[in-house]
Amino acid sequence: MSLLVVGSVAIDNVETPSDRRDELLGGSATHFSYAASFFTPVRLVGVVGEDFPHEHIDFLSERGVDTAGLHRVADGKTFRWTGRYLPNMNDRETLDVQLNVFGEFDPVLPTSYRDSKYVFLANGVPAVQAKVLEQSEQRQLVVADTMDLWITQHRDDLDRLMQKLDGLVLNDSEAKLLTGEQNLVAAGEAVLEMGPRFAIVKKGEHGAIYFGREEGGGIEIQILPAYPTRHVIDPTGAGDSFAGGFMGCLAEAGRVDGATIKSAMAYGTVVASFNVEGFGLERMSTIGRDTIDERLREYKQMMAF
Amino acid sequence: MSLLVVGSVAIDNVETPSDRRDELLGGSATHFSYAASFFTPVRLVGVVGEDFPHEHIDFLSERGVDTAGLHRVADGKTFRWTGRYLPNMNDRETLDVQLNVFGEFDPVLPTSYRDSKYVFLANGVPAVQAKVLEQSEQRQLVVADTMDLWITQHRDDLDRLMQKLDGLVLNDSEAKLLTGEQNLVAAGEAVLEMGPRFAIVKKGEHGAIYFGREEGGGIEIQILPAYPTRHVIDPTGAGDSFAGGFMGCLAEAGRVDGATIKSAMAYGTVVASFNVEGFGLERMSTIGRDTIDERLREYKQMMAF
């Protein structure tokens, strides 16, 4: 099933306690696309500036990411993010953000993308996320990511968007902020009352929880720990690569039944574990589907009892 | 297999954002014993004061906890702890601690306990924990819990104790403190170089990770998320009830092979999920082995993919 992603494409500078990399290919849509590409071809919609290196586009194309929807603004500059991870490698400080062309991102889907069936709206302004839906009339599954800024500053738009979503992906603190619930299970369940029929709460190094409305009115929960990664080099993009693995897996299967969702959650977890093992997409560029499948088997074994 | 636990027996006052209970039966050995009692008879060694209600002893005895080793000090007062949970129900402040008779706890095993095979040293001064080992010469499996205070203030005693342990149970921040490793997987593995052949790192609401030395020199890892509990009433004793379920399960099986350990980890997780659903042991007193088994099946299903 065709998979479309809309979101940021960025150039990142990342500092960790022991190392630093500048001019990394980054952005939510980038990490998502790359992760999903191990499962299915991906259509990317984003915007970059004149300064965006052609080699980054080649790097994505080589993995089957369609970049026809990556708009380049002449005289514009690419979205840039600079961040520093604290010694625990989970908390980070944003040192600098330059939205540049992403600040006026007005996504336009190429004609060749308009029949997309599975759509992922990576973290962005809810009103902009909504514009994508108007242009993808053949959509069958829409999942969005969001963040604290939109929850507090663009709540009405987010509420409207949620009515049109099949699934919402967000992290634990965002789920609590969105719902006002302190208990994570209560928060996940409360998201389902806001529109989406499923919600995925990401807990970073602690894994993720899936909440799904069942036909009979019940709520199905899947809980997955993160893969225990010994060498966390750069957590940037872990959540997006999780979502990419998840959606890529669903698109590959072409269905969204319970068993497929559970398998997709596990694949998303495993793909994200590779993403953090290198700066930017460095580690991801060294793996293949076989590497992912091998770790998935190991991961499954680690939970068996 | 006979299961012995040595540790604190306390009277707790617990305050949460929405409620408060005074004069609760608490303590590490108490929560451990009660949890383990669903799997096997338990021998408890502890100390209380003259003020300790007889009904608490009856409460434990009724669940098959042998209290012959619960020493009552005439003219002494029981260990008392008062704490307050923050709205997230994970972080807490200790408002008052009165060690009382527990401050001079010098465990003496009744003759009837001396043939104990499985021994759990609940959180306590390492030198005191070590005294128990001298008195249980038929021990086959020794597991201990520890905490930051002993890691920083009684490190030599703890190092000596670790040489005699089969397993060490500690929480994530303690594992990092003990080993100096910031990465939890690296920390868990580093514990295995300090003596114990297995280590269990508890992550509170995020579950637990098991690290075990394999015969070939490799390290086996089991990762388990916590059971998603919607109504967390009082987390006090969750870690001890986890350990109780774990050790109880091993003692019931009478063996410590890989499959039994994995199953015991899952049982520990599930038992702990009941512990937090009520103040003190309120919720635990309403369940049976069938309730535990039913939730274990549900829990397993929640992780399946």
Explain how this protein is built.
The structure is a homodimer of 305-residue chains. The model of chain A has no long low-confidence stretch (mean pLDDT 97). In chain A, helix 9 (258-275) packs across helix 10. The first copy, chain A, has a single domain (3-303), classed as UDP-N-acetylmuramoyl-L-alanine:D-glutamate ligase, CATH 3.40.1190.20. In chain A, 34% of the residues lie in helices and 26% in strands. With 305 residues, chain A is α/β, with parallel strands linked by helices. The A-B interface holds A 87-89, 182-186, 189, 203, 205-207, 209, 221-232, 259, 262-263, 265-266, 300, 302-305 and B 87-89, 182-186, 189, 203, 205-207, 209, 221-232, 259, 262-263, 265-266, 300, 302-305.
